[in-house]
Amino acid sequence: MARNREEEEESDSAGSSEEEEDSEEEAHRTTKTTNDRPKKRSKTEDNVESSLASFPLELATIGTPSGVGNGKKQEPVIVLLDQASLETVKNKRGMYELLNCDDHRDLCKNKLRKDPNLFRPDILHQEMLALLDSPLNKAGLLRIYIATTKKVLIQVHPSIRIPRTYKRFAGLMVQLLHKMKIKAGNDSTTLLKVIKNPFSSHLPPGTRCFGFSCEGTLYSPIALAKSIMPVEPNTTTSEPPTCFVVGAMSTGHITIEDHPYIEKMISISSYPLSGAAAASRLMGGIEHHWGIV
């Protein structure tokens, strides 16, 4: 009887040890399978990456206008946004901001001893949106330059998508003034670039220049386009482009003394207009003349 009990105990212990080994092997296989599976990404990680991917500037699609020859492409219309207020200032946190009359009014009055209304970078933002959103630019017929009050000359790529909100626009301008250029997030194309003065050195030979002022000769936008623009747009270097100088400041005028290359001062309304409204009327007149819709 004792011998039978010992044999039963040995068989029970052997069975339990085999069960333990089987459970260990199964646990090992489960762990290995779990480790081999790719880890699931959380929604937060996906949202962060998607927002970062959408933040860099992108290139807009520019169409090919009719009348393009086989020569080197050249935009037949050039616009200089002159006297733009683009200055940076360091805040209390040690970060740079774009100087403006809303956020730095006390600084302008007390430290700079200047009228805060002179610092209006939002005017430049509005004008750039009006020009870049125009069908003339989307047709690939427009080139934009910016000249600041600090004699900084900036070249704007025609296919840039400028930020729609002022806050992001201000951050972009601060980055440009410090790094001297801005490139596309998904391409090596330079979208904004600080170039050498004077502006006249970047104009092709034979370019006709006109300045905008409420004191200039009055034209309707369509009559202006018919009188100074060719019948059809020519994007080759065989025909020089036409340049327009538009003010990007809150007060003051564009003068021939500051721009000796200006042929004539013109106006497109009997009423004082904002820079963005004047730019929109100018683009509309040229688009009507060339049949761009």
Description:
This protein is α/β, with parallel strands linked by helices. The protein has a domain at 77-87 and 119-290: SPOUT methyltransferase, trefoil knot domain (Alpha/beta knot). 37% of the residues lie in helices and 19% in strands. The chain has helices at 2-36, 43-54, 105-111, 121-132, 135-138, 166-179, 221-228, 275-290, and strands spanning 77-84, 88-90, 96-98, 142-148, 153-156, 181-183, 190-195, 208-218, 242-247, 264-267. It has an 8-stranded mixed beta sheet with strand order 6-7-5-4-1-9-8-10. Strands 2-3 form a two-stranded antiparallel sheet. Helix 4 packs parallel to helix 8 (275-290). The radius of gyration is 32 Å and the shape is globular. Residues 1-11, 13-21, 30-55 and 64-71 have low confidence and may be disordered.
- Count of helices? 8
CATH class of one domain: Alpha Beta
What can be said about the biggest beta sheet? 8 strands, mixed
User: Could you spell the SSE succession in H and E letters?
Assistant: HHEEEHHHEEHEEEHEEH
**Rg calculated over all Cα atoms:** 32 Å
The computed structural class is alpha/beta
Strand content: 15-25%
Average the pLDDT over all residues and give the rounded result: 81
Point out poorly predicted stretches: 1-11, 13-21, 30-55, 64-71
Care to count the β-strands? 10
Largest sheet strand order: 6-7-5-4-1-9-8-10
Find the CATH topology of one domain: Alpha/beta knot
CATH superfamily of one domain: SPOUT methyltransferase, trefoil knot domain
- State the share of residues found in helices, binned by percent: 25-40%
Separation, N- and C-terminal Cα atoms: 108 Å
CATH architecture grouping of one domain:
3-Layer(aba) Sandwich
